[in-house]
Amino acid sequence: MDTGELYQLEILLQNSCNLRCRYCFAEGGTYGQQAVRLTPEQGRRIIRILAQQGIHKISKIAFLGGEPSTLPDTMEAICDECARLVACGRMQETPEFFIITNCISISQKCMEVLHRYRIHVTISIDGPAEINDQLRVFPNGYKTHDLVLRNIQKLRAHGIEPAMVEATYTAVHERAGLSREETVAALQEELGISGIYLCDCDCSDPTFEPTYEGAAARMAQDNRSLALLFLEKKYEEVPLMLRQFVIQTSRRLNMIEGQDYLCEAGLQSLTIAANGDIYPCHMFIPGKYMLLDNIFLGDFDLQASKPAVDELEMYTKLGREPCRDCWARNICNMCFYRIYQTQWSADARDELADHCKILKNQLEKTILYLSNMQQAERKALYDAIGKLQPVKHDETQ
Predict the structure, then answer these.
(1) Which among 2, 38, 47, 281 is least surrounded, fewest beta carbons within 10 Å?
(2) Residue 21: CB partners within 8 Å, gap ≥ 6?
(3) Start-end of CATH 3.20.20.70 domains in the chain
(4) How far apart are CA 281 and CA 357, in angstroms?
(5) Whole-angstrom Cα distance, residue 18 to residue 54?
């Protein structure tokens, strides 16, 4: 933010949702707070205020919720305000726009806004009907899978191709005999979307939380996937996050100086809730952890909220003893919220230690493969990955 640039701005258009996913950490989208909707004028104000506070470039704006697709007028107002500020020279360039939606209520107006502003669409669905409809349901318990598929077809008919899918892997999948890899493959085949981001359910409820794989099993799977990517060139069979990891690692290896911060949250990335509250990331909203400020307050000062993050030694690699002497320090990154949890959770500390082992294994294997490739081979790899996922890969050499 010191440079007047934000890499990512997350805006929660509302903190209510039209579904009641049975494992939802956000308590039906409310995050345990009073339901609020962001009006179109408030959306415009957010962009204007950031510009007044010296932000002249926002690379990405992500519309989140609750469920953001039911407020197309607010999305439109935010996109339009960005375009207006670019036209008058107060913003350098139009941001890329993104939305994460459950694809349940896609109106004609919503499709018009998505198409006009070229908004990248990520759809939330958890697998085949027999799995998804046990997890992602309406408040009355009614199933959602078939409706999501019909709305995906509506989007495509309107010239909107979904960019990726976010899915949650649960104990329901396990009990049905569906592995993580099989879940990804099933979604790719059914939806015709190659970019599937699959994360494990983390809700501390054995009904939904899957068996923890452990670091050794995860590293073995990563090694198989990296061999598929680099040796067999079966790019579509490699998990989305691992493909992105290879691109990001290559970029970091080309950086002259490493970054001391573990994560961009609070520094180059901000989340603004529907009531105007500002957080480093949406993960901090439950419990109001790390509430930095409120953008609608009359005395709001963007720079004054930054020290609340800067003063945390745990936020920097040099400030954390396990990171200080680690060989991977200059090329790794890590979720700030994951580290923040270690202050009070022994389970979080154990998971973080495993995460470090997994990350270092990924780095070791990726660096070894890349070092044995010619520049033309690396370029061909990046191009192949880039065709499968929404990753800016053309700057990597």
Answers:
(1) 2
(2) 135, 136, 137
(3) 5-213+264-310
(4) 25
(5) 36
Strand partners, 199: 168
Residues 390, 120: Cα–Cα separation, whole Å: 9
330 vs 252: CA distance, rounded Å? 8
Token pair 């198989």: residue: 224
* CATH code reported for the domain at 5-213+264-310: 3.20.20.70
Among residues 392, 304, 264, which one has the least CA distance to residue 7? 264
Look at the pTM and tell me if it is higher than 0.85: yes
DSSP codes, 47-112:
HHHHHHTT--EEEEEEEESS-GGG-HHHHHHHHHHHHHHHHTTSSSSPPEEEEEE-SS---HHHHH
Tracing tokens 């941001």 back to the chain, one arrives at 95
pLDDT tens string 313-342: 677 888 888 888 999 988 888 888 888 888
Which contiguous run of DSSP H or E holds residue 124? strand 120-124
Spatial distance between the Cα atoms of 189 and 146, rounded to a whole number of angstroms? 15
